[in-house]
Structure prediction request, 382 residues.
Amino acid sequence: MIQGYFTDNISDEKLAELIDETLRFEKAQKSKQSIISIWRILPAVAMVAVVIGAINILSTLPMFQGDTDGSQVPNTSINMSVSEPTNIGLNTIELFVPYMVEKSFFENRVLAVITDTKVYSKITAYYTLRDGYYVLDSDVKDRERDVLLSYYKDYTNLTGYDIIRMYINNDIQYDPQEPGNIIEPVDPNDPYAHVRFNKTRDSLLLDVEWHTYETFLEFIEEYKKSDYYTQLDEDLKNSYDISLENYLNQIKDKKILMTKSINGKPATPVWGADGADRGFFKFYDLDLSECLDSDGYYIWQVFPYYPYVCYIDEYGNEIRKRFSEGSCPVAVKSKAHYNQVLKEKIIPFCDSLLEQGLISQEDYDWYTTFNPLDYYVNRFFN
Prediction:
């Protein structure tokens, strides 16, 4: 960040006066315009900066930031500049629910002041502690966000400016138009630095290319020349042929979308013993608008995830054990929720299977250390 601008050393009060003067000037020039955007006033503010610099006021104006109790306290840890207009007038930003909160800030400014144990349990259920930050679950609904916002308003004295200042102090990048949306910084030592995430690490952004009739027909012709296909027995060949022909006809009739490549890697089928395809993405609803982000990437949700354990029982039957809450399989909604299910359900169940000799140590290690995020990252990005 460039330092040395006039806003580095000017009080909020004086800055507000300058902006008010500029707004009045803009209104006089554009009397028919009812809403003045902050972006429109920046050239005028920059001109004020030149004037102030010319009369050498920079060295005499101390910088103050308004604290939450209304007092003025010095704060030299934040640098604002005219080149970053979203930092001007931050104290006017309304309180919002942050997607990422630095650990000590969240614990001292939020959790420490919540006196209702039920509210405390609810708000902590929506945030997952990761690498020194509390991250909001990506699947939180608008109604739930409104409830969370009421907790922030009722129990804390925070403002939107306080949260933005926390963002700046911790180098958290955010969307200036929607401060509640953050852009996670890239750590060169981060094992996921090469991965495209959505707003949080609970969903991935995939670059998906779709098959046309011609490209899928070409794929079938090449596939039937492969050593894998030619070595199949006739029954499996017939089963695969039927599946491929069915897909081809559905693509031709525009009844199905099938992936040609994912992140530049060809999407190849993986058939089971029954001939069922378990590898392609198949979409029977051709409208993917709700599945794509603004750049056209397909949004792949890591959560919800339905954990399971597959093993052979004492009678030789293959069992696929899913973990239930009542009559429904558990839909793990976050990494924190998955860790809870892992500890309370999966590990005890696998302990019993291992003791009975129904799974190997290798299988036990797989199921008890499985990470859904790592699984999908390895599948799509590695």
Observations:
- The chain has four domains: 6-86, 100-185, 208-296, 302-382.
- The first strand starts at residue 64 and ends at 66.
